[in-house]
Amino acid sequence: MYDEILVPIDGSPGAESAIEHALHIARQNDATLHPLYVINPADMGDLGDEPAEIRAQCSEVTQPVIEAAREAGLKAEQHVLEGTPNERIVEYAADAPIDLIVMGTHGKSGLSRVLLGSTAEKVVRNAPVPVLTIRSGVDSGAEVGDESKAA
Question: What digits encode the pLDDT tens for the residues 71-89?
Fold first, then answer.
């Protein structure tokens, strides 16, 4: 059913929960996993790092997902893009043969969500494929790379 699964990650607890779920679904469907990290230039501020160094740091966040997928016998393709996260996620899903997006939420509600917006909510509204959102701390029953707990 799902051959290509996009999992946007940012190193947050919500993203970690989404990774677990994405790996579980990918194992069930023998799907290719696409971990995607989007560098938002608006958030970079005065980091002082060169763009190549920043991309390398982002690759470090995606690399454990690649390794966990490969340990599970799955294919995985790492991606690091620049731009507004919700826009780049939707664009990637539209341009690549993605069947499902699995992404974490930060659990914000009320005024903070309204004022700051929600990347996950914007992706849900605009994505060309189904989106599974995972709240921070929701356990899939399997650790990243742990086949023994997967159903």
Answer: 999 999 999 999 999 999 9
d(C-alpha 23, C-alpha 72), whole Å: 8
Alpha-carbon gap, residue 151 to 139, rounded angstroms = 13
pTM assigned to the model: 0.81
Map tokens 């294919």 to a residue.
75
Residue spans of beta strands (DSSP E) within the chain: 4-8, 32-39, 79-82, 100-105, 131-135
Residues in the chain: 151
Burial 53-84 (b: 16+ CB within 10 A, else e): ebeeebeebbeebbebbeebebebebbbbeee
* Tokens encoding 87: 């826009």
